Amino acid sequence: MDSKEVSLIIKWSGKEFPIEDLTEHDTVAVLRHEICKKTQVRPERQKLLNLKYKGKPVTDDVRLGAMDLKPNFKVMMVGSLESDIKEAASRPEDVGSVVNDFDNEEEDNVAFENKEVYLAKINKRIKDYTIKELNPPREGKRLLVLDIDYTIFDHRSAAENGTELMRPYLHEFLTSAYQDYDIAIWSATSMRWIVEKMKLLGVTDEARDYKLVFMLDDAAMITVLCPLRGVIEVKPLGVIWGKYSQYSSKNTIMFDDLRRNFLMNPKSGLRIKPFSEAHLNRHKDKELVKLAKYLKAIAEHCDDFDTLNHRRWEDYLAKKRSSH
Ligand SMILES: [Mg+2]
């Protein structure tokens, strides 16, 4: 399906903010989300003055394609007192991230009917997003994509140093995974922070027995309208698959503590139990030990990851164990 791109300019507070990451299938709710990313003005505070649909102010469910807007149409925005802006700018990065996740198995199959309409956004990322390779991909390896916050790192707790916030057995896990997988990082924050966190955890140290192939940041994510959850940002593996033909859903697995990050590729995602309150859990969390075994088992026994159900990873391991 071809989706036409829609480009708009938001005029607000004496400045112009181009919004380019939209298609005709996106709704006003998605537009508001994109405006928020550019201006920090929260969606509910945005008054979009001259955006009309059938002569009336638009509602959030109206599709941009239905409004017949000229390219680079200027939308006048008002609203938002200084204090609101300050409040918005200081909001925690992961606001709503835990409460707004979904976990029903049925939701994997929810007609995420308009998947195709997001292909335009994915294609745009494939074209415009630069993946900086840290180390070359290796012939015949599968791909493991790891989230950072709450997956391998507790980014909320106070601590003296990075090791205290690191999920236990991280280096052992990565060393083991590296035998069968190229390892990538994908975090919903800016690259600057990703680089800092990896340094803090010692993951990018030269002396490690494993190496990262590349890291992706929030700019590689796309905004989608999820029928059940509203507007969310997701990590579409299609961006990586479009740039590297050796990786596909057959050989890629992604770990994240938020299932909604997998929305575009639910079968490739494994939701890991979140690692938080490091000071309490540092001594008992063994998820990475178990998951290293799972990665090893599927690398050895499975030629097509599409046939796996990662929701049942613990059963898979138990079965493998009892059959030996
Ligand atoms: Mg996370």
UniProtKB/TrEMBL annotation:
Major site of localization recorded for this protein: nucleus
Domain FCP1 homology: 137-298
Annotated NCBIfam families: HAD_IIID1 (TIGR02245)
Cofactor: Mg(2+)
Species: Anopheles coluzzii
Domain Ubiquitin-like stretches: 6-84
Enzyme Commission designation: 3.1.3.16
Any one annotated GO CC term: nucleus
CDD domains named in the record: Ubl_UBLCP1
The entry's keywords: Hydrolase, Magnesium, Metal-binding, Nucleus, Protein phosphatase
Cellular location(s): Nucleus
Protein name: Ubiquitin-like domain-containing CTD phosphatase 1
InterPro entries: FCP1_dom, HAD-like_sf, HAD-SF_hydro_IIID, HAD_sf, Ubiquitin-like_dom, Ubiquitin-like_domsf, UBLCP1
Reactions mediated catalytically: O-phospho-L-seryl-[protein] + H2O = L-seryl-[protein] + phosphate; O-phospho-L-threonyl-[protein] + H2O = L-threonyl-[protein] + phosphate
The UniProt record lists the keyword Magnesium: yes
Molecular function terms from GO: metal ion binding; protein serine/threonine phosphatase activity
